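re the bet — no i am not wrong, look at it urself. input seq straight from the record:
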Amino acid sequence: MSQTDFSVRVASVTPVAETIKRFRFERVDGEALPIFSGGAHIVVSMKDGSVTRRNAYSLMSDPADPSGYEISVAKAEESRGGSVFMHEKVKVGDVLTISAPVNLFSPDWRGRKHILIAGGIGITPFMSMMAQFDKAGVAFELHYAVRERARGAYLEDLVARYGSARVKTYVSEEGTRIPLEDILTRQPLGTHLYVCGPDRLIAGVLDAGRDAGWPDYNLHAEHFLTPPPGKPFSVELTRSGKTVAVGEHESILEALEAAGVDAPYLCRGGACGQCETGVAACEGILLHNDLFLSDDEKASGKKIMICVSRFEGQRVALEL
């Protein structure tokens, strides 16, 4: 455990919707947890037999409350193991290791108003944001869409807490949709927009914002990509001299960690750039799955994001 990790006890596990549970963590030593800001996430380490899984989850509790952290976890239909572990194996009283909070999705406090657009479990980073906005008297609107009401975590709770003027909910099976064009065209200058949810929602909102004339610096999105499966391969590490096998259902980063190699990361989802690694040699194809590198950088074959990207071919050597 690093100096920025904490041992926490699971204080509560609460079903909040179909396939979604809320978990509250409190420090084992009884001390306060670090203060965080809205939009922050932590990495939860899960010891599952011989495998250690590490998943990033947005903090949804009140940033002003250091007594505990809360996250919500959706049980993924095609889980790589993390969400299934949280849903089926984590119980009240269990001890887990979590990282210190990291914020890659903080609100721009210069904004005159903040529009939050959430799809499904993408609601979680906005829970802590709204608590901060509300206390600070900052104008905001939440537009929250779910496929079906049974899977809509916190739908009624959010309307009750912040009012129907600030919280709008939409349920696909009931025929309601986010009126994106109307939202984008009626905001005062200086408004910032934030989106989190499925990739199609994020891409659609960002494209619509740009088409409506919104500057890029007023558009914000949070992506957490899941490392895709693929053919097994091995990576050579030029600095340590090690060769590490990467399985079909693990990322390069996960394989390195299992082999005792200390590799940098923050988001573990291909967005932040922290795990960017130089490619010393490549006899094959780098399969770039990240959102950080530019198209030119990907085409150069000189860099790879080891948290989500893969390789196919004869040989790849990384500068680690």
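see?? DSSP finds seven helices and 16 strands in the chain. told u. also Helices lie at 82-88, 124-136, 155-162, 180-185, 199-211, 252-258, 295-300. so pay up
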